[in-house]
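Quick start: what a row looks like.
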Amino acid sequence: MKLTFACVVLLYFTSLASAQDILIQALPQTVIYGENDLVIVCSISNPSLLSSVFFIQLLRNSSTTFETVVSVTTGQPATIQWKDSALQRRATAIGNLDSPSSAQLRLTIDKDSVLCPADFKMYMCKMSGLTTASDVVPKETSPITISYTAKPNVIEMPRVRILNENFDTPDRQFSVGTAIQLTCRGEVGSDASMTIRWCAQKVGEFTFTGLAQTPIYSESSLSGCLYTRSSTITYNLTNQDTFTQFLCESGDTGLCGTGSAIQHVNITLKPSTEGSGNTNPRTADDTSDAGIIAGGVIGGLAALILIILLVYFLVLRRKSDGESSTPPPIDDRTKEDVPGYNGPANPEGPVYSVPVKDNPPHERQELLEEREEDDHRVNGTTQEPRRELHYADLDIATQPPGTKVKPKPRPRHEPSSTEYASVSFGGSAV
């Protein structure tokens, strides 16, 4: 009876030691994905009940069972043994078994190497050691689940669509009274119930304020560690929306503009047209823009061609006028056209006949008398007194006989080397 009682007491204390000697911890208890390293530590919680430790193992839950990931065994120094080669390439493990008080195994996965959700599973620790009573005992912990949170970082630029239309529009300027739909899609975090919030800031406002419109949300879909969903609001533009900046964000902390994922879109109003009651930005004028542009181009080309033709005809006409204004030959010019002429002021001065050398003297006298009578009958006017014909004033070398010419007197101021001869007409000498 006493022996049976002693065995029961020994088993009780052995079970108590087994439950308290091995400990598993996650540091930190909740990992912020992308910001914290994932650290798991297996250690001895009550080293006074053990005299030595043979090994410590870290196991991870697979589809059906727990499989060893890495372990540390006794040796000089203690040996780290990897069972998961894929994890070994992106994680580190350290450990020692020098004494029960310092024995531990530590696994660290860098924050940039953490895979979500693959690394956030259930883990447990095992150990084997020798008690102070020289009993070899295996010990293990209860499984723990590594918890985490993930902040959204990616969100799309808001898309704009006019209400009741089937396609998004690239326009960002609309008429007063236009109803527009704004849609934003992005990550909302590791919680499927999180949403995307809308805020706005108008001209003259200093901060963003939440919109009163109730958004329409899509179902959340998990992608890695993060859920993704969309949010849509309908907004009616007023005269106050001359320049309004709309903001969509997720991962917020309660105030507009404090989210971890933020995007903006700017909406402005079209200049108002006096007396126009049409507030729909899609009018017939918009559809005729291409025709107006084409008409303007064609009209410009036609005007350019007309100008070229006009210039061409003006040049031709100027050339024609220049040819028609060519000065007459030197032989046809009057005494007024000759530079340096100092003859009589009367442009209709005496006209003389070139004497014909072959006529007899009495015939030449008759010719002179006929010319004098003609001079007095010109237009019924009295002509100036006839100047005395001077032989030196006549140019009889280049004119045919009997031709009426206007004498081209030489300037009186120039010295003349002409020798004068006496000509006899009918017995009188000149």
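That is the whole record. Helices lie at 2-20, 85-88, 284-287, 289-324, 361-376. Residues 1-19, 275-287, 330-335 have pLDDT under 50 and may be disordered.
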